[in-house]
């Protein structure tokens, strides 16, 4: 009996010890989480303060803040939506300060500002599975934005508002621009190879010398667009509207054109490729 009681007591003691150990481990884990969240908060606060430093003399500071937020979004998925909103706000506010008409002589710089480019890259390359069901892509108003030479390869810009934006020589290869509004936008020499432009609106867009080869242009509205010298080889133009479009010098070899509207489209001897 004494031996049995001793064994039972030992088991009880061991169980109590294990429970105490588990409680200690859980408490230590909670303390670590609190400390980690505190570090994340400090990193976030410092990065936002860096973004708030305006002026060309603070460019490196702003770039550091963007990179810090990009890293924090990876380390702390729970903060990802908040960081995404901060990036969107920074992009839109910075672009709005520099916005102007997209036509010649508008004052648009020859290329996209470095901080805007880095912020856009961070936004496009984010882990979209952490967006918490939101669609921040549609929350960036880029109307009349100065984005010449911007790099946005494989960017998700579905339904984006890019009316009258200056996207001359932009790199938009494989970009998702479904239903995007690019009316009167300037896309001279822009690279839109393999881009998805289904049902996009490009009424009166300036696409002089643009690369649209292998692009999905089904249902796109290119009424009155300037496509002189554009590369449309192997593009899918089924059910697209190209009425009054200027196709002089355009390359049209291998296009799909079922139901395409080419009423009063302008072509000449320099337009190459069989249309129908």
From TrEMBL:
<protein>
    <recommendedName>
        <fullName>Pentapeptide repeat-containing protein</fullName>
    </recommendedName>
</protein>
<dbReference type="Pfam" id="PF00805">
    <property type="entry name" value="Pentapeptide"/>
</dbReference>
<dbReference type="InterPro" id="IPR001646">
    <property type="entry name" value="5peptide_repeat"/>
</dbReference>
<dbReference type="InterPro" id="IPR051082">
    <property type="entry name" value="Pentapeptide-BTB/POZ_domain"/>
</dbReference>
